[in-house]
């Protein structure tokens, strides 16, 4: 690569988490764009790669290593590491940018977004019969909803469901989708999912249908056209983030299973984390990009209902992400996990009250120390319901299930829940 003769290209933004394997500390590196392969990198090598910020040459990096450690790092070893990283597309080099252009061109030509998490070694089977059995098995797990139980007779307006992998959280998904199966039939399901990658805009839509092993689930393009006309701004700037994001894909699988052969459409919308608002301590909808979108989506839903169509909201959300795996200093303890549970229930209480301001305060009071992964979609759903008159007390949430997936070996905990938001 020519850049080695000058400045070393910077390390790309990647999803990095700590991992302990065989007593060795590693960094698990994943590329949300799906261009680079997943990798487990020794911690010292990862620390070295952090020096690649786009403003250092090979000599600069060697000098910095010497300053920090007092040792000389051989140039041939450094050049080899740079080449290996670039071959895996981990560096923001011309080689990576060429590959990105190719991938974007391939994506733009697709009518259907492939089911990227299906298949051997992935999150769920890619063979229809095997997938059907996998889904039914989740309803038989301890802690799952009882499919024969009577559901509430109240009108269902929205559900919150996890987006954690099915192995750890499938039993909790079943509570939300049992409610949809029994009383949540709609023409269009607006699915709001967390985007785990950086976004230029707080929201990203796609008109591509979502592929499943049972066939594609249709995206309602007329709904999106109406939304874009009302909003008047580009909502597809971050559309490529849909390609590998699982938070909506997992909802589509559960939704297709719950509704069987019923005809329905989806509106897939990825939501950012509203991190700037959390840092500033200001309500997200005071940002015109957020507030304006909520107004436009509310108006779109109202217009669709005026046309006689039933609309339902689904949030693909997880809650806390804590432990050394996610960057915390201290190891998990039973006392801390109990505290996480208590704080999560305060957050869920705000959601049940359909109070986006209280939800925001619960997260912003400690600068999102628990890394609430579903903040964007939950806040958006509450904002939509509020604009639709929910604050008059006509709508409230019911917590259906809450759980924590704890891995003490890797020192991590992810919490998640299912909630039904219904007419009262």
Radius of gyration: 23 Å
Report the top-level CATH class of the largest domain: Alpha Beta
Count the DSSP helices.
Answer: 13
Largest sheet: 8 strands, mixed
Number of strands: 13
β content, as a range?
A: 15-25%
CATH topology of the largest domain: Protocatechuate 4,5-dioxygenase, Chain B
Instruction: Give the CATH superfamily of the largest domain.
Output: LigB-like
Instruction: Count structural domains.
Output: 2
Instruction: Return the structural class.
Output: alpha/beta
Based on Cα principal axes, name the global outline: globular
Query: Based on the structure, what is the oligomeric state of the protein chains?
Result: single chain
Helix amount: 25-40%
Q: H/E order of the elements? A: EEEHHHHEHEHEEEHHEHHEEHHHEE
Termini Cα gap: 64 Å
Low-confidence stretches: none
Question: What is the gist of this entry?
Answer:
With 424 residues, the chain is α/β, with parallel strands linked by helices. The protein is built from 13 helices and 13 strands.
Overall description:
The strands form three sheets. Strands 5, 6, 7, 9, 10, 11, 12 and 13 form an eight-stranded mixed sheet that branches. The protein is globular, with a radius of gyration of 23 Å. It is of the alpha/beta class and 424 residues long. The chain contains 13 helices and 13 strands. Helix 6 (166-183) packs across helix 8 (246-259) and helix 10 (288-306) crosses helix 13. 39% of the residues lie in helices and 18% in strands. A hairpin with an 8-residue loop joins strand 2 (24-30) and strand 3. The chain folds into two domains: 2-105, Outer Surface Protein A, domain 3 (Alpha-Beta Complex); 117-423, 3-Layer(aba) Sandwich (Protocatechuate 4,5-dioxygenase, Chain B), CATH 3.40.830.
């Amino acid at each position: 690569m020519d850049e080695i003769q000058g400045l070393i290209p910077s390390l790309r933004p990647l999803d990095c988490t700590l991992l302990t394997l065989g007593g060795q500390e590693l960094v698990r590196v994943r590329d949300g764009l799906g261009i680079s392969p997943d990798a487990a990198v020794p911690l010292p090598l990862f620390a070295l790669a952090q020096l690649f910020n786009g403003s250092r040459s090979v000599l600069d990096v060697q000098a910095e290593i010497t300053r920090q450690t007092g040792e000389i790092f051989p140039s041939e070893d450094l050049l080899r590491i740079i080449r290996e990283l670039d071959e895996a597309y981990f560096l923001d080099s011309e080689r990576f940018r060429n590959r990105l252009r190719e991938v974007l061109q391939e994506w733009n030509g697709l009518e259907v977004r492939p089911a990227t998490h299906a298949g051997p070694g992935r999150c769920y089977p890619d063979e229809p019969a095997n997938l059907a059995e996998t889904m039914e098995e989740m309803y038989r797990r301890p802690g799952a909803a009882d499919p024969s139980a009577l559901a509430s007779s109240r009108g269902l307006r929205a559900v919150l469901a996890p987006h954690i992998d099915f192995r750890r959280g499938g039993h909790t998904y079943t509570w939300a989708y049992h409610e949809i199966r029994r009383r949540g039939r709609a023409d269009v399901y607006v699915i709001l999912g967390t985007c785990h990658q950086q976004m230029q805009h707080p929201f990203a839509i796609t008109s591509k249908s979502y592929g499943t092993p049972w066939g594609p689930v249709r995206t309602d393009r007329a709904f999106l056209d109406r939304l874009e006309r009302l909003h008047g701004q580009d909502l597809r700037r971050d559309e490529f983030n849909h390609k590998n994001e699982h938070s909506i894909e997992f909802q589509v699988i559960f939704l297709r299973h719950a509704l069987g052969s019923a005809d329905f459409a989806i509106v897939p919308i990825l939501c950012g984390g509203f991190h700037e608002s959390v840092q500033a301590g200001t309500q997200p909808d005071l940002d015109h990009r957020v507030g304006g979108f909520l107004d436009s989506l509310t108006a779109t839903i109202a217009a669709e209902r005026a046309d006689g169509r039933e609309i339902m909201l689904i949030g693909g959300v997880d809650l806390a992400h804590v432990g050394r795996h996610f960057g915390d200093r201290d190891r998990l303890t039973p006392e801390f996990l109990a505290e996480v549970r208590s704080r999560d229930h305060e957050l869920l209480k705000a959601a049940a009250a359909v109070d986006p301001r209280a939800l925001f305060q619960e997260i912003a009071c400690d600068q999102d120390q628990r890394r609430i992964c579903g903040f964007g979609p939950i806040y958006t759903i509450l904002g939509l319901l509020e604009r639709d008159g929910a604050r008059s007390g006509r709508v409230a949430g019911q917590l259906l299930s809450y759980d924590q997936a704890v891995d003490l070996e890797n020192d991590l905990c992810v919490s998640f829940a299912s909630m039904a938001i219904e007419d009262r």
